[in-house]
Amino acid sequence: ASDDAIPPTWPRGANLRCADSRGRVELHWDAASDNEGVYGYEIFRSVDGGAFAHLKSVRGPRTSYADDKAVSGERYAYQVRAYDLAGNRSPPSNTIDAELKR
Question: Mind listing the pLDDT tens digit of every residue in the chain (102 residues)?
Fold first, then answer.
């Protein structure tokens, strides 16, 4: 365990972006940085304007995720937070809206 208390940061912003790819929402973001290393990223999703809920966590250095549970006709919004080995979380990334084409 680490006694690190410094959360990861987005050096130039997360630059979260998305694309509709083969019936799923493809998310991509820029890497965060941390004094002891970024351990992973938490992906949060909002459906039709609802509250953001944790969707999935991915291990770093990966900076992408494909939401294959998204369905056409729903409006989605996504945010990402980086976390380090000590459990410190970054501020949320920018929010990106997505809607699958029918």
Answer: 578 899 999 988 899 999 887 789 999 999 999 999 999 999 999 999 999 999 999 999 999 999 999 998 899 999 999 999 999 999 999 999 998 876
Beta-carbon-side half-sphere exposure of residue 70 (alpha carbons within 13 Å): 34
Question: What is the full DSSP assignment across the chain?
Answer: -----PPPB-TT----EEEEETTEEEEE-PPPB-SS-EEEEEEEEEETT---EEEEEEETT--EEEETT--TT--EEEEEEEEETT--BPPP---EEE----
Structure tokens of 73? 């006709």
| C-alpha–C-alpha distance, residues 84 and 6, integer Å | 9
The model's pTM = 0.93
